[in-house]
Design brief:
Blueprint lengths: L8 H9 L29 E6 L3 H11 L4 E7 L11 E2 L1 H6 L9 E3 L1 E5 L5 E4 L9 E3 L2 H14 L3 E11 L12 E7 L8 E7 L1 E4 L6 H5 L7 E10 L2 H4 L5 E5 L10 E5 L4 E7 L6 H12 L7 E11 L7 E2 L2 E3 L1 H4 L10 H19 L8 H30 L3 H10 L3 H13 L7 H21 L17
Parallel strand pairs: 1-2, 1-11, 2-8, 5-13, 11-18
Antiparallel strand pairs: 3-7, 4-7, 5-6, 8-9, 9-10, 12-15, 12-16, 13-14, 14-15, 17-18
C-alpha cells in the first residue's frame, strides 16, 4: 500500500536515465532450434510450459501462454483455495488493465488515516475523484478468479507441490534438453500427495518467496520481511467506520522499519504489521498494532492468523536458461509500501508475453539472453526507478520515530496527497512541478527538525543471528 511519499519523482526521473537497458547475466550462445513440424505431427511437437505457482503472477502468465495453440500450458498450485497472508490492496489501474470484475473487490477505500508515533492523525483522501479508489480484496477470491480465467483459456491445472527440478547440464545451449519436475499431486479432500514427474521445455517460477524454482536455477538469496496479519471480525457498527476507510500506523512500537495497518475486508478487518530487521519480535509488534487500533476493533474475534515472508529486493538472478522468475519469487515487492500484487500480475504477464513472442507461435524456444533482453530489461526500465525511490523513502522516513513524525506531518500537504495517490493508483511516477517540489524540500527539512525534537527514542534490540538469515 500505498500512501507513500512519491514526491521524490524527480529523483526517479534521474535514476531512470541511468537504468540499464540490458541484463548483465551470463550470456549464452544461440541454440540449434527444432525444425518446424509438419502438419501431421504438429500435435506431437508442442512445447510444454510449466507455470509453478497459481497466485496473481502465475495465473496471469498462464493466461497468456494458454492462448497460444502451439504451447501446452500446465499451472501448478498446491492449494486451489489458498488464502495468502496479504493486506490485499490493489490499485485502480489493475481493475481495468487486468479486466478484474468489481465483484472481487470487498471494499473501495477512499479515505485513509495516517497515525504517527505520538498518535497525531492525518486524514488523507480529499484529492481523490469520485470514481477513484483503492480496492481491498481477499486473495482467495481474486487469485481464484485469475486462475479460473487461465484455465478457461486452456491451461491445465495441477493441484500439486513441486518439490524439486532436474536441470540438465546443457539446458542453456541444447534446445532438446528438458526439465523434469518432481511434484506431489493432491486429490481434493486428501492430505497425502502422490509422487509424480513431468518433463517440460520451459519453466516460469511464480512460487513465492520460498521459490523451489529459484533454488533449482541457483537464483541466489535475498533478505526478507515477515508479514503478520490477523483477520478480525468486528461488529457491524464498528465496521461502519471502515466502510471506505483504511488506517496506517507508524512507530517503533508497531514496527522498527515498516508500518502497521487496519484494512477493511468484506465482513472483517485485516490487522497486521511487518519487519525485516527484528523478525523475532513480530508477535510483539502485532499486539502493539491491536493496542493502537484500540476501541475501534475492541471485542472483535480473531477468525484467521496469517504470516508469510516478503522479499526485500530482486533476486540476484531472475533468468537461467529457459527458467524465469516472476512475482515474489523474483523479488518484485516494493520497499516502503510493501506492495506486491500489481507487480506480481504485471511481471507474470510481461514475462509470458515476451516469451510467447520469442517462441514465434510455438516454432522455437527462447534463449536466456533473449529473455533477459526482453522481459527483464523491459520490466526494469518500466519499474526500476519506482523500486529505487521507495527504497530511499523507507530508509529516510521509517528509520526512527523522529522521521516517522515528519512523514505523517508531510502527508498533510495536498500536493503530497495528490502525487501519492496518482502514483499509486496509476503506477506512473507523478509530480515534477519544480516550484512545488522546491517548496516540499523546505517543508521536509522543517518537519524532520520538528519530528526529531518531539519524538521518543526508538527501543533498542539485537538479533545478530536471525538478521543474517536469507531465503
Amino acid at each position: 500500500m500505498k500512501f507513500t511519499l512519491l514526491t521524490l519523482s524527480t529523483l526517479a526521473t534521474t535514476i531512470a536515465a541511468f537504468t540499464p537497458t540490458s541484463s548483465s547475466f551470463v550470456k549464452t550462445t544461440p541454440v540449434a532450434h527444432r525444425a518446424a513440424s509438419s502438419s501431421s505431427t504438429s500435435l506431437d511437437m508442442k512445447y510444454k510450459v510449466a507455470v509453478v505457482g497459481g497466485g496473481p503472477s502465475g495465473a496471469c502468465a498462464a493466461e497468456i501462454f494458454a492462448q497460444e495453440k502451439g504451447i501446452d500450458t500446465v499451472l501448478f498450485e498446491r492449494k486451489m483455495d489458498n488464502a495468502k497472508p496479504c493486506g490485499g490492496a490493489i490499485p485502480l489501474c489493475m481493475i481495468g488493465e487486468f479486466d478484474i470484475p468489481e465483484s472481487t473487490v470487498d471494499r473501495k477505500v477512499r479515505r485513509m488515516k495516517l497515525i504517527s508515533p505520538t498518535n497525531v492523525e492525518v486524514d488523507i483522501g480529499d484529492t481523490l475523484q469520485p470514481n477513484e479508489y483503492i480496492g481491498m480484496c481477499r486473495r482467495e477470491i481474486m487469485d481464484k478468479f485469475l486462475r479460473d480465467r487461465a484455465i478457461s483459456y486452456g491451461a491445465e491445472a495441477v493441484q500439486g507441490l513441486v518439490t524439486s527440478i532436474d536441470v540438465p547440464a546443457d539446458h542453456r545451449s541444447n534446445e532438446n534438453s528438458r526439465y523434469t519436475l518432481h511434484y506431489q499431486e493432491y486429490a481434493e479432500g486428501t492430505s497425502a500427495g502422490v509422487p509424480k514427474t513431468m518433463d517440460v521445455d520451459l519453466i516460469v517460477g511464480a512460487d513465492g518467496a520460498n521459490s523451489r524454482v529459484a533454488k533449482a536455477m541457483d537464483a541466489g538469496e535475498y533478505n526478507f520481511a515477515i508479514a503478520f496479519q490477523e483477520r478480525i471480525k468486528i461488529s457491524e457498527e464498528k465496521m461502519q467506520f471502515y466502510e471506505e476507510m483504511a488506517e496506517m500506523y507508524v512507530g517503533d512500537d508497531v514496527s522498527p522499519d515498516f508500518y502497521g495497518w487496519v484494512f477493511p475486508k468484506y465482513d472483517h478487518v485485516g490487522v497486521g504489521t511487518g519487519t525485516v530487521v527484528n523478525r523475532p519480535a513480530i508477535k510483539q509488534y502485532q499486539k502493539a498494532i491491536r493496542d493502537r487500533a484500540g476501541e475501534k476493533i475492541a471485542g472483535g474475534k480473531i477468525i484467521k492468523v496469517e504470516a508469510h515472508p516478503i522479499p526485500e529486493h530482486y533476486r540476484p538472478r531472475r533468468v537461467n536458461g529457459r527458467m524465469a522468475l516472476v512475482g515474489d519469487a523474483a523479488g518484485y515487492v516494493t520497499k516502503c509500501s510493501g506492495e506486491g500484487i500489481y507487480f506480481a500480475a504485471k511481471s507474470g504477464r510481461m514475462a509470458a508475453e515476451a516469451i510467447v513472442k520469442l517462441m514465434e507461435g510455438g516454432k522455437r524456444l527462447p534463449t536466456q539472453e533473449e529473455i533477459e533482453r526482453t522481459y527483464i530489461a523491459d520490466y526494469d526500465k518500466l519499474y526500476g526507478p519506482t523500486y529505487t525511490v521507495l527504497d530511499i523513502l523507507q530508509k529516510v522516513f521509517y528509520s526512527n520515530n523522529g522521521a516517522r513524525e515528519a512523514f505523517v506531518e508531510l502527508c498533510n500537504s495536498k500536493y503530497v496527497q495528490q502525487v501519492t495517490f496518482d502514483s499509486y493508483l496509476y503506477k506512473k511516477v507523478q509530480g515534477n512541478n519544480p516550484l512545488d517540489d522546491l517548496k516540499l524540500l523546505g517543508e521536509t527539512i522543517g518537519c524532520l527538525i520538528k519530528g526529531y525534537s518531539i519524538a521518543k527514542p526508538d527501543a533498542e534490540f539485537s538479533n545478530p543471528v536471525e538478521s543474517m538469515k536469507r531465503l
